[in-house]
Design a protein that fits this description.
alpha/beta, OB fold (Dihydrolipoamide Acetyltransferase, E2P), 3 domains, 7 helices, 21 strands
Length: about 400
């Protein structure tokens, strides 16, 4: 903290910013305020400063928004866990805020005008939707959730995102300091608890098995508890339905599933191209590729490749009719977008879980001649500021 930054301020908040804060101003300086809603008068504590802006967290709400409610997560908030940073806001209003944030990022970084709301996923319940969680273990051997941007842990395990009973019996000093505890509720009802540390790359199963059963439609995957699968119980089916709707009946014979993980979208694309077509699914994770190979063994048109997307695209000798990308939070970036454009892919479905990176990628596509046909935004992480965006682009 700089010498010029005050310890506390009283501020009137403005619009929601990307990342879960609201924008306020103090003597011309921008202040990003956490645990606040737009148009609230709040007393805040300054927690960090930069040359042109400060970060702060709300200590007291002097004039609350009509959309503020009692927190839906008992452990989140100032001096609590960093799990549910919007648990104090009406869930329907949160979807409005998320739509506004995405629209702002698209306008600023993507040169694209969009207006809409974040759509609910599944039944839209704000609580009890998460089926995968990772806990850290402190020096006292207790598992817990990190405080916001801190190594300190909250060892009360009743996060509002979790179904009742998901973490029963996992509290108390029973773990080795420095371990990570992965807990997964499989779609067959089995709870899996896997413990990892720096010395064990794979880790060991404490309860259940190492792989969890995940299902979408009639297809079943076995995904490591330490691997990637959508954390919302209904997200995988929701995104698969979007990809199916945007890929069917377009006459595609070749499809690329990039950053494909366990092959969720490869299964959809295999149906789109038919038995005589070809689907290439690419991911850097060997565990994900093994899961994809096993789950899609009945689809001979699917080739599973363990490699970087850049290298895999560089090795292709022909174009694809459609590509689906689900990159990490940092997005695909210029090089990958350029490779798709140079390969002449006429139809792209792009998935993004961070608004700024997604908006930047949308702008990159447009500069390479793509047109945005549709964008959908999903409230896949209720009680938090996080979202999932999916864009359909053609040229």
């Amino acid at each position: 903290m700089g010498e010029d930054s005050p310890a506390e301020l009283v501020l009137r908040t403005g619009a929601a910013a990307n990342g879960g804060s609201c924008v306020a101003r103090h003597e011309g300086r921008v202040v990003f305020v956490r645990y606040a809603l737009p148009d609230e008068l709040v007393r805040v504590r300054v927690t960090g400063d930069r040359e042109s802006y400060w970060h702060a967290e709300t200590l007291e709400v002097l004039e609350p928004s009509p959309h503020r409610i009692d927190s839906l997560c008992s452990i989140a908030g100032v001096d609590g866990a960093g799990c549910c940073d919007l648990a104090f806001a009406d869930p329907a209003f949160v979807r409005e805020l998320k739509g506004q944030v995405v629209a702002n990022q698209l306008a600023r970084l993507g040169d694209y005008t969009w207006a809409g709301l974040a759509e609910p996923v599944g039944d839209g319940a704000a609580r009890g939707w998460r089926t995968r969680v990772r806990l850290a273990v402190g020096a006292d051997g207790r598992a817990g959730f990190h405080r916001y941007h801190s190594s300190e842990l909250v060892t009360e395990l009743r996060c509002g995102q979790l179904p009742d009973g998901m973490l029963d019996g996992l509290d108390g000093p029973r773990w080795r300091p420095g371990d990570q505890v992965h807990v997964v509720l499989g779609d067959d009802g089995t709870r899996h608890v896997v413990c990892t540390n720096r010395q064990q790359r794979r880790g060991h199963s404490v309860e259940g098995g190492y792989d969890a059963v995940q299902r979408v439609g009639q297809r079943e995957w076995r995904v490591p508890a330490t691997g990637f699968w959508q954390s919302h119980r209904d997200a995988a089916a929701t995104y698969s339905a979007v990809v199916a709707g945007w890929s069917k009946d377009i006459g595609a014979t070749t499809a690329w599933d990039l950053y494909g993980g366990a092959g969720l979208f490869a299964a959809v694309l295999a149906e789109a191209v038919g038995e005589s077509g070809r689907v290439l699914t690419v991911d850097t994770s060997r565990a994900a590729s093994r899961a994809a190979t096993a789950a899609l063994a009945d689809l001979p048109q699917v080739d599973v490749v363990t490699d970087s997307v850049r290298r895999a695209l560089g090795a292709q000798r022909g174009p694809a009719d459609i590509a689906v990308l689900d990159p990490p939070r940092s997005g695909a970036g210029r090089e990958v977008v350029d490779l798709l454009a140079e390969a002449g892919v006429p139809r792209v479905i792009h998935v993004g879980c961070e608004a700024a990176a997604f908006a930047r990628d949308v702008g990159l596509y447009q500069r390479r001649g793509y047109t945005v046909e549709q964008i959908r935004v999903f409230d896949s992480f209720p009680l938090t500021h996080h979202i999932e965006c999916i864009a359909l682009l053609t040229r």
